[in-house]
């Protein structure tokens, strides 16, 4: 008897003008299995998700749910077939209550034709309880919940829709350590209930911890599907990028140059307390700590995006007082924000426009823009950073998340700054793209630039940093140089939790 799959794709192809986003794709997902999906940015994972959820209608191929062929033309039909998705960018309406978010788009009425809130609250509580979330008030505004709890509301919504397959798109990208553990426990609960999970992640360690099988995509095509027990990181990476990667963290030896940035007693009530440090040319200074430790807030205060209550900032020995980011940019600073969509890009503009946005004066020819120079620089950026885009005229919103991140990096490289602050520079991008980002950092170091890297990925910190500053609750807890015996994961985490390292 042939094996029954909860979802099966056969020979699915999706085309856009000038590009085949997915070609002859096939995948089979079993009931109650956690199925990993990996691939480089632009490999076709997002296209696959949108085909499964009815956002895109494929030109060729077939989709089966529980052995029955489905032709759905919109997301509502996909939900009705039993497919739900928890996206990386959560679909939460923050001003609405938990129950309103869970039942959004569904009209549950009583015998009088009125919304049956009693039933909806009951079903929402049951779904949350099944996830171990008995402490969430279903009447509370979703915006008052943490990101991890908002994610649980999305999963509860899928449960109340009787989903047979829940797609989780980079579900841990914005979560803290405890929230990640909670999510993994939740995924296992869903598996025990017989619900299939398609787990899309760039964090390979999560795949090996959670998944039963894994599918690799590359250039819009299926490369392999195997039991996770038969794989290791090297095999996965080779399948994803089509080549072996000898070193995931290509750290180069550099010589520390002059002091570029000095921060003294930077404070902001309720956020930062006496933050002091120095940063030098030719080195990577990393900031580590738990979510909410104050790392991003420190960068924003230095960059003029937030106004500190006290403290001093010096660039090359000269005290500066930035009232806005524009002044910081003109003083030779670049800030690659963690929120690439909200603060790093103009999504409605082209790749070309976004790449020159941080320093448009450089591309003027008299009063007009030098379009020849802009085209030349943009094409060079696309080639160097391996940005997957049909043309430099493509609107940025159409690119995958990792390629959007590369556009942000390209934008700031074109500003020719002296100080580069990278806030979570590799969040949500694949292993191959991460190495490209690290090599960009290496190129900047060779030019004598100063790099400050905020990262929640300790292997990344240990792999690339020359020094690490550990923060907790807005304070500096430790400063650890690379040559120190404390330059290890255990001591960094100990400091992040408030312990003293001896």
Concise summary:
This protein has 17 helices and 22 strands. With 502 residues, the protein is of the alpha/beta class. Helix 4 (117-130) crosses helix 5 (147-160).
Helix content: 25-40%
* CATH fold annotation of the largest domain: Rossmann fold
In the CATH classification, which architecture of the largest domain applies?
Answer: 3-Layer(aba) Sandwich
The CATH superfamily of the largest domain is known as: P-loop containing nucleotide triphosphate hydrolases
Please mark out the parts with pLDDT under 50 across 5 or more consecutive residues, or reply none: none
Structural key phrases:
502 residues; alpha/beta; Rossmann fold; 3 domains; six-stranded mixed beta sheet
Please give the structural blueprint.
Blueprint: E1 7-16, E2 19-29, E3 34-38, H1 45-52, E4 60-65, E5 68-70, H2 75-81, E6 83-86, H3 98-102, H4 117-130, H5 147-160, E7 165-169, H6 177-192, E8 196-200, H7 204-210, E9 213-218, E10 221-227, H8 233-241, E11 259-268, E12 272-280, E13 284-289, H9 295-302, E14 310-315, E15 318-320, H10 325-330, E16 333-336, H11 340-344, H12 351-356, E17 364-365, E18 368-369, H13 371-384, H14 401-413, E19 419-423, H15 431-446, E20 450-454, H16 458-464, E21 467-472, E22 475-481, H17 489-496
Helix pairs in contact: 4-5
């Amino acid at each position: 008897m042939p094996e029954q799959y909860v979802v099966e794709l056969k020979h699915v192809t999706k085309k856009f003008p000038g590009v085949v986003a997915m070609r002859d794709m096939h995948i089979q997902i079993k009931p109650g299995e956690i199925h990993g999906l990996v691939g480089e940015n632009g490999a076709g994972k997002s296209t696959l998700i949108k085909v499964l959820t009815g956002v895109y209608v494929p030109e060729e191929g077939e989709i089966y749910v529980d052995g029955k062929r489905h032709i759905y033309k919109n997301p509502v039909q996909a939900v009705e077939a039993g497919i739900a998705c928890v996206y990386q960018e959560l679909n939460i309406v923050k001003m609405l209550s938990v129950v309103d978010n869970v039942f959004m788009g569904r009209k549950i009425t009583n015998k009088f034709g009125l919304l049956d809130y009693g039933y909806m609250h009951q079903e929402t509580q049951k779904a949350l309880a099944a996830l171990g979330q008995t402490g969430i008030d279903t009447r509370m505004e979703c915006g008052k919940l943490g990101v991890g709890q908002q994610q649980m509301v999305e999963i509860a919504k899928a449960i109340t829709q009787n989903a047979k397959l829940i797609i989780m798109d980079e579900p841990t990208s914005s979560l803290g350590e405890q929230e990640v553990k909670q999510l993994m426990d939740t995924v296992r609960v869903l598996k025990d209930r017989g619900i299939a999970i398609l787990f899309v992640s760039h964090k390979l360690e999560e795949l090996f911890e959670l998944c039963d099988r894994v599918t690799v995509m590359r250039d819009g095509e299926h490369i392999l599907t195997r039991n996770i027990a038969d794989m290791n990181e090297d095999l996965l990476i080779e399948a994803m990028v089509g080549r072996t990667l000898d070193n995931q963290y290509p750290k180069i030896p550099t010589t520390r140059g002059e002091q570029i940035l000095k921060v003294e007693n930077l404070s902001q009530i309720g956020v930062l307390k006496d933050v002091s440090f120095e940063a030098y040319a030719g080195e990577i200074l990393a900031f580590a700590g738990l979510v909410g430790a104050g790392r991003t807030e420190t960068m924003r205060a230095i960059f003029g995006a937030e106004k500190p209550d006290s403290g001093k900032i010096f660039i090359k020995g000269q005290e500066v007082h930035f009232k806005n980011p524009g002044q910081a940019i003109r003083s030779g600073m670049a800030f690659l924000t963690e929120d690439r969509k909200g603060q790093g890009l103009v999504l409605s503009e082209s790749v070309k426009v976004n790449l020159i946005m941080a320093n448009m004066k450089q591309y003027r020819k008299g009063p007009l823009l030098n379009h020849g120079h802009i085209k030349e620089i943009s094409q060079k950026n696309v080639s160097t950073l391996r940005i997957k885009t049909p043309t430099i005229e493509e609107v940025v919103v159409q690119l995958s998340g990792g390629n959007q991140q590369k556009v942000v990096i390209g934008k700031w490289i074109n500003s020719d700054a002296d100080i580069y602050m990278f806030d979570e520079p590799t969040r949500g991008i694949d292993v191959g793209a991460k190495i490209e980002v690290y090599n960009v950092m290496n190129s900047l170091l060779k030019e004598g630039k100063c790099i400050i890297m905020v990262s929640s990925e300790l292997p990344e910190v240990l792999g690339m940093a020359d020094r690490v500053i550990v923060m907790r609750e807005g304070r500096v807890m430790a400063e650890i140089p690379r040559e120190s015996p404390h330059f290890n994961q255990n001591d960094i985490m100990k400091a992040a939790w408030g312990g003293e390292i001896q």
